[in-house]
Amino acid sequence: MAGYKKPKRFDYNLAVLGAGAAGLSSAYIAATVKAKVALIEKHRMGGDCLNTGCVPSKALIKSAKLLSYAKRASEFGFNSGNFDYEFANVMDRVQKVITKIEPHDSVERYTKLGVDCISGDGQITSPYSIEVNGKTITAKNIIIATGARPFVPPIKGLDKIDYLTSDNVWNLRELPKRMVVLGGGPIGCELAQTFARLGSEVTQVEMLHQLLVREDPEASDMITDKFENEGIKVLTRHKAKEFISDTRSNRLICEHDGKDVTIEFDKVLVAIGRKPNVTGFGLEELGIELNPQGTIKTDRFLRTNIKNIYACGDVAGPFLFTHTAGYQAWFATVNAMFTPLKKFATDYRVIPWCTFTDPEIARVGINEKDALEQNIPYESTTYGIDDLDRAIADGEAQGVVKIITKPGTDTILGVTIVGDHAGDLIAEYVLAMKNRLGLNKIFNTIHIYPTFSEANKMAAGVWKKAHAPSTILKLLKKFHNWRIG
């Protein structure tokens, strides 16, 4: 590369910057194929997913769900239900869950795998070198997996407030009496419901017209209705203008329909998106190109404009999910290890995700909203989970399976599931779409009774009934009438 001298020998086949989901997967894969790997992390192994994201949020969601069941005790035949608890103990449990999972991502584990784990602030000084702890290491290939962080908007007065984000909310040991959640995306929705169930008076503020704006309106409405029934004050079309803090109170001023709305609060959680970590470690000096949204620009093989430097995970986008970080890590690592002998292109046709509210919302492929916006011809099939035997038995008879198919065929274009265990149920459709299996295959698959997975078969059955061959059925009716004389 122009201006940079390529070493005759390298210390490593691969150097990975960042030990979150993408970086750990990259290091693991490279070590498995016996490459010499350096994994550099300046903070904590496991990154956001383990320490401030997926793991702690799901642990807290579970505790809050138990409280929600206690409030519904009469539905299950009990006279009353009550949990005696301290909020600090609930938050301590979250840390215990992190500690229990931590060994999966630990220095000790990766060292045993053959990875050189280096704790320090790595600076990329050339396409082949990284400086860390005053020492320069060289690598034939580099993978950037530096992740993302909460985006904090430049709202007037916010810098004067001791605000929370998904990074530091886990440090709370006293339950806020009044909490404002700024943002109606997945993180905002999950934590709004969780803190409301734990006992906070929650007001959720979203500037757009609905919560979870990427989802179909009917899916968003189900979540909004559930939130409001649980006591959350949902304020859509409210734009945050200014935070005020004085001896009297903390207040958020929002604009709604041209008027100011004042909301008093004790704590505010800022959850309006994430920002990729692309500054402060040498990308600018190297001239690594970025996308308009701030992620690192990569090709189908996850190469940057410097061909021996790859990027994966949240820093590369376009999907900010742990499972896509792991998916991208395989391509980045294998391509780094084996190009030009062999290289593999990413395929984002079938990417699932789930918002872990109660009920959950799981998605794969397009939804009806996408089809309308993109002028894609489609048919829609809907099955209400309120009709499912297991859901009724479990007291979770709510939600829907909505399938988008190619007109006149059983080809699945996308699925949205709202309901208990939606994140698990969607896997069958992910498998079907990935392997180009249609609804007939799902309908003809035996599903255990009574389980939530039957919802998938039932939905396929709704599609099949709507596409039954009417002419043949009329002939069959005449045939059967003839047979009985």
Task: Write the topology of this structure.
Elements (H helix, E strand, L loop, with lengths): L11 E6 L3 H12 L4 E5 L5 H5 L2 H18 L15 H15 L5 H6 L2 E5 L3 E4 L2 E4 L2 E10 L3 E3 L27 E5 L3 H13 L2 E5 L11 H13 L3 E3 L3 E7 L4 E7 L2 E7 L1 E4 L3 E3 L6 H4 L22 E3 L10 H17 L13 E4 L4 E6 L2 H6 L5 E6 L4 H5 L6 E6 L6 E8 L2 H13 L4 H5 L10 H13 L3 H14 L2
Parallel strand pairs: 1-2, 1-6, 2-3, 6-16, 8-9, 8-14, 9-10
Antiparallel strand pairs: 4-5, 5-6, 7-15, 11-12, 12-13, 17-18, 18-21, 19-20, 20-21
Helix pairs in contact: 1-9, 3-4, 3-6
Feature tags:
15 helices, FAD/NAD(P)-binding domain, globular, five-stranded antiparallel β-sheet, Enolase-like, domain 1, 485 residues, seven-stranded mixed β-sheet, 3 domains, alpha/beta
Briefly summarize what is shown:
This protein is α/β, with parallel strands linked by helices and 485 residues long. The protein has helices spanning 21-32, 47-51, 54-71, 87-101, 107-112, 186-198, 217-229, 283-286, 322-338, 368-373, 389-393, 422-434, 439-443, 454-466, 470-483; strands spanning 12-17, 37-41, 115-119, 123-126, 129-132, 135-144, 148-150, 178-182, 201-205, 233-235, 239-245, 250-256, 259-265, 267-270, 274-276, 309-311, 352-355, 360-365, 379-384, 400-405, 412-419.
